[in-house]
Amino acid sequence: MGEKFEADVAIIGGGPAGLSAALVLGRARKRVVVIDEGRPRNRVTKETHGFLTRDGVAPGEFRRIAREQLRAYPSVAFLEDAAVSAAGTDGDFRIATAGGAAVRAKKLLFAVGMRDLPVGISGLNDVYGKSAFVCPYCDGWELRDRWLALIAKGARALHMAKMLAGWTRNYAILTNGPHELTDEQLQELSRHGVPVFDAPIRHIVSSEGMVEAILLEDGRNVACEGIFFAPKLAAGSELPRSLGCRVTEGGTVVVDAFGKSSVPGVYAAGDAASELYQAISAAALGSLTAAGINNELLHDAWEAVN
Ligand SMILES: Cc1cc2nc3c(=O)[nH]c(=O)nc-3n(C[C@H](O)[C@H](O)[C@H](O)COP(=O)(O)OP(=O)(O)OC[C@H]3O[C@@H](n4cnc5c(N)ncnc54)[C@H](O)[C@@H]3O)c2cc1C
């Protein structure tokens, strides 16, 4: 028999969103269980940038500090495990974990982040998080003024090209197959001096994680010092969908301003429930959602007295 937990709130996911929610709920004297399997999307990187007071912190170090600070609140428990099923209704949810633990909670918070799907480019895994990134706000500063390759196609390529121009003027678009750009879009890129290569990518050449060149199937070789690419994403967990929560086509749980999903008692926060994809935004949404959950718990308890 596995361990059994009774909590006011079960938080599934222990990244910036889940940990921030745990802090607010712990300080509000709620019994919390944080279930986390420890596979955040940014585990490929060495540094998290743009989080005020923590600029450049390693993702693991961020979590370590958060867990250490949460130790001050004895009503917060941690379970290093994967939640594999969720059932029940508002006031009485049950979560089962891969390790055999059973958690009963009045409210559920999904802070499960997003998951990268393979993009199928040879050599990309060797450089992802070291010299290939997905978001200029996160890693553009470190690659400022460098020669970069932007791997994306269609309207998304144009959007990312406009954004990248804020960090460097030296970049080419590699569409890895049909460019899916209109004539107007191609002319716009040409006006801004952005070359477009539409041959499929054969391989990314790198040394110790640092990209050196991108070989194309037409024999050309694009030298570069860094890459930004359009990732393919999926929901971090299918559990919100299995409980009946409304989820967008892209895998984002649909929530209100306080993180409430379409299913009573079920909340979502962080990357799982927004497309901001920034650690500080995820933490802020976790905090806001925790306040929403706490308000609902206080209200339920108040109303239960007759
Ligand atoms: C390469 C890369 C670089 C980045 N760099 C930066 C940066 O420099 N600055 C910045 O602000 N942001 C950066 N980000 C974005 C940032 O990582 C995310 O916005 C942030 O981590 C989101 O926090 P979260 O708590 O919502 O989700 P996550 O941090 O992804 O945490 C979700 C957690 O939930 C767990 N989980 C999922 N399903 C289950 C389950 N069923 N049971 C138990 N646990 C589960 C996961 O294992 C994970 O630990 C980067 C992202 C990537 C991919």
TrEMBL record:
Residues 8-283 form the FAD/NAD(P)-binding domain. Keywords: Flavoprotein, Oxidoreductase. Its cofactor is FAD. It comes from the Bacteria. Pfam families: Pyr_redox_2. The keyword Oxidoreductase applies. InterPro entries: FAD/NAD-bd_sf, FAD/NAD-binding_dom, Ferredoxin-NADP_redctase_2. The keyword rRNA-binding does not apply. PANTHER family: THIOREDOXIN REDUCTASE 1-RELATED-RELATED. Homodimer. This is NAD(P)/FAD-dependent oxidoreductase. It comes from Paenibacillus artemisiicola. The lineage of its organism: Bacteria, Bacillati, Bacillota, Bacilli, Bacillales.
